[in-house]
Amino acid sequence: MDAVILAGGFGTRLRPWTDTVPKPLIPLLDMTLIEHTIRILPRNTIQRVIIASGYGVDQMRAYFDNFDAGFEVLVVEEDQPLGTGGAIANCREHIRGPNAIVMNGDLITTVNVEEMLSHHVKSNALISISLWPVEDPTRFGVADFDHNKGLIRRFQEKPRLEEAYSNLINAGCYIVERSVIQGLSTEYHSMERDVFPGVAESGRMGGYRYSGRFIDAGTPTSYLEAMVAAIEDNSFNTGGIVGTSWYADPKMSKKGIENSAVGTECKLGDGIRVNRSAILDGARIGDNVYLDNCLVGRGSTVPANSHIVDMVIGFNQQYQ
Fold it and tell me: What domain range is 301 assigned to?
């Protein structure tokens, strides 16, 4: 079975980090976002990972040329944005087997792919999507889910609370049968808006509800949520945790840093206070700096006595 990772977007909500690096290659602790996604794929089920890449495709190829993902990896280029549906169609000639699993490239999830595949087969679905409960369904598209049959009857976009079919939303992972893949247009279109509703009407749209983690790490706020989750779940290969923060080198730990991540070769000044922030490799933080909900890019400098809240500082920048 092949897995298709959708990694073709521009990642505009994480600018300026994504001005020079495609979003799936943004670091999260000591791994990239796409590594965290690939990490949950079962090796006894998945034989190959196909990366549907557009913006930053050369960086994507270079990255996987030098990284052992544990799977065969093929990077397929999109010449122009194709949406989720067009991106899958663009990979069609490379997809082997009767079905494929599709995931977003910035997805932090604990979905059990093997259980989801088993549910998909038992329900005789053409497409199955992972489902996640939310407190406020009014900000999302929600699914009208038949728990007994394991099938989705219909979808509803951003409903009023009292009119919502459920509180279950699409959690960024789906299994698609080859017959559906073969019928997808190579023009720009959305699986969520253009394909899922019709399959639901046919009675063959599966839903797999799971628990654990679901974070779409595509905004500064959700990226930091994913960072904290990765620390809590020990989702890293190197470095270690001191207090509530992860350090690439635990010897660099300092008082005043909480719920944060600090990369390699960083310089941390005295008297700093850092809360829920990411400091990437080679960054320099001056004395008496206050950071809250900040993303500090690789090689950037924050001068002494700075007080910064809710800010994304790019790579190799001098904050002023």
Answer: 240-313
